[in-house]
Design a protein that fits this description.
Topoisomerase I, Chain A, domain 4; mainly alpha
Length: 181
């Protein structure tokens, strides 16, 4: 940086700081102007569309369910491939440990998704009932039940695929399966 640039920037900064209070003190603040512009916007909320709320809630719940189903499918496929590889190498106990780990992961993901869907549904239904849209609230609750069932079904399918891969092993006991809803 050149000396002239540094000096001019420093001079500008000093002048700005020294003269600013004198120039800004004489002008009113823009938010302090009385009249219609000073009205708090929270006092006059825009009307809320219950259909838009229901649509948004359904989109969030559907996305959560689809992500869980896709994650379960992906985890099960990867786990079965790993179990088959371990089995081919003669590492039967490692295959069972890996299966237990995958089942636990699938169960935790599904449980978290079901809880998230329930939470979204509860909040949405409360908001819709406050807006006196109980018909929409019932539809959202019914769709929520279907989505939770979809997640539970995907969990069961994924665990079944893993258990089938483990059952092909020729050693000891089968892998314990966590209880589903």
């Amino acid at each position: 940086m050149k000396t002239t640039t540094t000096l001019s920037c420093a001079l500008f900064g000093l002048l700005t700081i020294a003269l600013a209070p004198a120039t800004w003190a004489n002008t009113p603040l823009p938010d302090a102007v009385p009249g219609p512009k000073a009205i708090n916007k929270r006092c006059h909320p825009t009307p809320v569309d219950p259909k838009a709320i229901a649509k948004r809630c359904l989109r969030q719940m559907t996305t959560t369910a689809e992500n869980s189903v896709q994650g379960n499918r992906y985890t099960a496929a990867r786990c079965v491939a790993a179990i088959n590889k371990l089995q081919a190498n003669g590492q039967h106990r490692a295959a069972k440990r890996h299966a237990r780990s995958c089942i636990r992961r699938i169960h935790q993901r599904s449980e978290a998704s079901v809880k998230q869907i329930s939470k979204l549904c509860r909040k949405c239904v409360e908001a819709l009932r406050r807006l006196h849209a109980s018909g929409l609230a019932r539809r959202v609750a019914a769709e929520s039940r279907k989505l939770r069932q979809k997640v539970s079904d995907s969990e069961a399918r994924a665990i079944k695929a893993i258990c089938k891969a483990v059952r092909d092993l020729t050693t000891e006991k089968s892998v314990p399966v966590p209880k589903t809803r």
